[in-house]
Amino acid sequence: MPEEGEITIRCILVIFGGTGDLAHRKIYPAIYNLYVSGKLPENFALVAVGRRDFNNEGFREAAAESIKHYSRENKGTPDDIVHVVSSFYYFQIDFTKGEGYGQLKEFLETLDSRYQTMGNRIFYLAVAPEFFETIVTHIAANGMTDQATGFKRVVIEKPFGRDLVTARKLNDVLMSAFSEDQIYRIDHYLGKEMLQNIMVIRFANTMFEPLWNNKYIDHIQITSSETAGVENRGGYYDNAGALRDMLQNHMLQLLMLTAMEPPVSLNTHSIRDEKVKVLKALSPLDKESVSTNVVRGQYGEGIINNRKVPGYRSENRIQPDSDTETFIALKVNIDNFRWAGVPFYLRTGKRLAEKCTKIVVQFLRLPAILYYKDYGNLDPNRLIIEIQPREGVKIKFNGKKPGSKDEIIPVEMDFCQNCEIGAVSPDAYERLLLDVMCGDSTLFTRWDEVEYAWQFVDNISEAWSAQKPAFPNYAAGTWGPPESDELIGRDGRNWVNY
Ligand SMILES: NC(=O)c1ccc[n+]([C@@H]2O[C@H](COP(=O)([O-])OP(=O)(O)OC[C@H]3O[C@@H](n4cnc5c(N)ncnc54)[C@H](OP(=O)(O)O)[C@@H]3O)[C@@H](O)[C@H]2O)c1
């Protein structure tokens, strides 16, 4: 990872799908913020590849508008925006037709001379998955993946397949043109500040690391909840659902970082090796255990922020009889020495009561002597790692109520890293784009992580396919279906919703 102010590597960033939503909302603002914070290489150009009719000027105006609209708070000026987009170019092509790619190659070579980028290229596939294969095949067939003249890297957006079979097929196509170390599979959660902080909290603190196991931890819960519905992504979401859209990637990444063993070093391979071991140790789910340990849900109409919102089946571009799940909760076990006997409860969903992503580590109670004996059930100790929108760490413990003789009350220590005005964390895409430029793939998913994650998730979707769900089963604005509370309640525990 480059340090603040470090000069990164000269390159041309080629965005396939450069007129799309992701490029405008995330990539161009991220490039701009990298520039403003002095991290964008001087020798840098960006080529947006799209289908619609634009010239460079028209495209730069559109990109500048997106930067103004979506960029996080920063120190930049209008002149900075003009400067950044002056190295943006537009190249019109129909991905499905082979002829444009040869011209694209020549165009990139022209820019190489102008920007002295030495043949270094990053191909970013910000396109629908059905185009991944055709684009990769065409860029390889036109000699654009040859590393004899500069590095060639490919960035691929989620979803990486829709099950193990399709993911393998996609991976084969990628591997026919690139090697694993040239492939950057994005899971943008990994670019979030607090996700990177999980390892630091765990492995840089004597007061947490020795307790991080089944001797001291009762259970761990991981929640990623949204109040938003499907918004303008109905077509995609109705084919994916919470299982594929959230659990297969983001939720399992959170689980891996929370449960992994300490890596022998902070290099890419060591970290990824430890992460993937968590997936290998996951207790596999069969049909029976899916029915007891996994809950799915779909929202009906309800109230969010005092506003009535429609049910999922009435949303834009959703089938009126859709059985797609917008919520999933599950209990998983990790069969290794550290975690045997410690359940992990995961849940994620749309149109829930609150927007938050957090990890709750609940510690075991002390022996029932002294205070436990006299004061009944004291609150358990909890460590809460807040990922978003609030970024921070809370520690909940018991203390004596001031002024009382011996009354015990729960108290809290609270560290919030983005509560100060102006304390804006970099967007995940800034960090991830910078890492691709520098050739650091630590925060991207390796193929075996993807493969094991699909294996686990496919067991759930197979079990689900045998039974039609009774949807909708939760009202928008609640914490999901009652079965989710029952899932954790059966074990004498409850979700932590604050
Ligand atoms: N949007 C997000 O927030 C988000 C988040 C996570 C992951 N993703 C993933 O990112 C990828 C892109 O998503 P998106 O929301 O940006 O999609 P989008 O807004 O629909 O953009 C699609 C892009 O593909 C281009 N395109 C489509 N067919 C083409 C063709 N035959 N030839 C040339 N260009 C063609 C479009 O060009 P024209 O507009 O010029 O036709 C446009 O630039 C998807 O894989 C998605 O799953 C998106």
Strand-helix topology:
Elements lengths: L10 E6 L4 H16 L7 E7 L5 H15 L7 H8 L2 E5 L7 H16 L5 E5 L6 H10 L10 E5 L7 H14 L5 E3 L7 H11 L13 E9 L8 H26 L8 H14 L5 H7 E4 L1 E2 L1 E3 L2 E3 L17 E6 L11 E6 L6 E8 L7 H5 L6 E7 L3 E9 L7 E9 L11 H11 L8 H19 L8 E2 L6 H8 L9
Helix pairs in contact: 1-2, 1-3, 1-12, 5-6, 6-13, 8-9, 8-13, 9-13, 10-13
The structure holds NADP nicotinamide-adenine-dinucleotide phosphate.
The site of NADP nicotinamide-adenine-dinucleotide phosphate has 20 residues, from helix 1.
Query: Beta-strand level of the residues, as a percent range?
Result: 15-25%
Query: What would you report as the Rg, rounded to the nearest angstrom?
Result: 24 Å
Determine the CATH superfamily of the largest domain: Dihydrodipicolinate Reductase, domain 2
Q: Just name the CATH architecture of the largest domain.
A: 2-Layer Sandwich
- What is the CATH top level name of the largest domain? Alpha Beta
Low-confidence stretches: 1-6
Q: How would you sum up the global shape?
A: globular
- With helices defined by DSSP (H or I, 4 residues minimum), what is the helix count? 14
Q: In order across it, which strands form the biggest sheet? A: 8-12-13-7-14-15-16-17
> How many angstroms separate the termini?
34 Å
What hetero molecules are bound to the protein chains?
A: NADP nicotinamide-adenine-dinucleotide phosphate
Give the number of DSSP strands.
Answer: 18
| Class of secondary structure makeup | alpha/beta
Mean pLDDT metric: 93
State the share of residues found in helices, binned by percent: 25-40%
User: Please, how many domains?
Assistant: 2
